[in-house]
Structures are given as structure tokens and as C-alpha cells.
Amino acid sequence: MERKPLQIEFRHLETFCRVADLKSFSKAADDLFLTQPTVSGHILSLEESLSLRLFDRTSREVRLTKAGEVFQGYASKILSFRKDLLNALSEFSQGIRGELSLGASTIPGEYLLPKLMGDFKKEHPRFIISLKIADTKEITQYVLQDHVEFGIIGAKLNHPSLLYEKYKEDEIIVVAPSDHPLTRKKRVNLQELLKEPWIIREEGSGTQIAVEKALRKKGKSLKQFNVVMEMGSTSSVKEGVKAKLGLAFISKRATEEEVSQGFLSQIDVEGIEPISRQIYIVSHPGRTLSPIGMEFLRFLKRKKEKN
Fold first, then answer.
1. Which of 61, 65, 175, 305 is 20–30 Å from 50 (CA)?
2. What value does the mean pLDDT take over residues 87-97?
3. Are 89-167+279-306 and 168-278 in the same CATH fold?
4. Which residues are paired to 43 by β-bridges?
């Protein structure tokens, strides 16, 4: 009896790989901008096509079955080859679009790259850029695992397999609600700040890494601060400060609008030098970038030279 050919869609493979990576249907749905029933439907369609169970579902997390582990290796390769094929052909055909998977930590991803991506799209309207935003440690892992071609991050994690290139500088400042008593002072000492409630970024963020490094020079640590909240994004930190839940260390680039409009105020800290941190382009030197990846990297470097 002739075996029926498999009918597998690329979008189902993409969904499968995100569920496998994130170990969650709901997280994969958020990452892919799909509903959870749609994600479940993609996985069910794959399992029916293969006549195999790919995931064990439990109340806590989703785990790959043995068959799922085998399938994941091949699915990742198929998607990678597909992207390489489309990118290679995009140089010869006006009808095929190039696609770039890019990663960025919060500050460059939310406050630096959107305008740059918009300018790049004006020059290259056929190209598609897929941007994944996560903390610095996670983006570094994405680069290592070849989930993105390169990343733009707010801290340098010493990893022997990766190449870091300096791109831009950012400054981290202390902000408070504009009517906070400390905003009336010209400068505030560190001991005064230790008494205040604080909102901080999660461990692994470039902001937290840079702040901890600066505090260590003064024999201090964030563990000595009265931390009342830990948040996973710069936007949520800003909203927390505006709601008067606490003070925060935050990127100056990310608060320019709120400070200029009077929602937040910067506090100058006595005894601590301005906390500057480098934004890096991180890539894997052992991998060749796609044509669109190389073109976007050249574009970023041209913009840097102009500025």
C-alpha cells in the first residue's frame, strides 16, 4: 500500500518550534501574535499528519515526547533552510522577499530599533524584519542557538563563541514621580536612596547588570535597597514609578518623553558617577549572515557613522 505523503505547513512548524522552546502554548501564542486555540490547532494538525504525539501536556508545563525531540531537530533545520533559500533567491528575483530574524534587549528593541527599522524599510520595502525582544541574557541565547541572526543588547556577557561590537552608548538615571520630595533637592546621597522603595528590572536585564556594576564600585548592591517590585520591562517600570510605587534606575533614552512632559523627574545622586553602559551588536562569528542580515548590519553602521 502506497504511503500517503505528509502535508505539513511551514507555519505549523514555526508554531511547534516556539512551543518547544518556550514549553508553553500560551507563551508561544503571545510570541507569535496568535490565539492559544490557534496554536493548539497547529500542533494538533501536525500530530494528526504524523500520527504521533509530539508533546506531553501537564498542568504545569509542556514537554516534548521522544518523537517530539527528534522532530524538533529536523523542524528547526527545515525552517532555517527555508529562510536561507528565500534570502538567497531574493538577490535574483523581485518577487521573493528576504526575511531577517533579529533580537534585541528592551532598550534598543523598544527605543532605538523601531525608527531604524522604519528607515531601512523605506530603502528596502521587499524585506521583512522579525524582531524578538527579551532581556540581554535571553537574546544572547537566541544568537547562540541560531534563533536570530544577530542581536542588539545592553550588556556584554563574556561568552567565547560570540562577537561583540560597540554600537551606541546609553545612560542609566534615577527617576521619581515629579512631586516626590527628593526631586526638590539638587543632589541626593546614596544613604537617602536606600530608605526609599524601589522598582527594579529582572535579573538578566542589561540595566540591572550595569547598575550592579556601578554600585559594586561603592561597596553597595541592589540587595541593600528596599526593593518592592521586580518588573520584566522598562515600560512597566516607568508606569510603576508614575503610580508612585517607588523609584527606579532606568535608561535616560527611555524616559526622555516622560521627563520633558513632567510626569517623571531625574534625581542626581551624590557620590556615584553617571552610569553609562554600552549597547552592543552581538553575533556568532562562525555563521554567515543572510544577504538581508548583512545589508541591515551595513545600514546600522552607516547610521552610527553619521551620528
1. 61
2. 58
3. yes
4. none
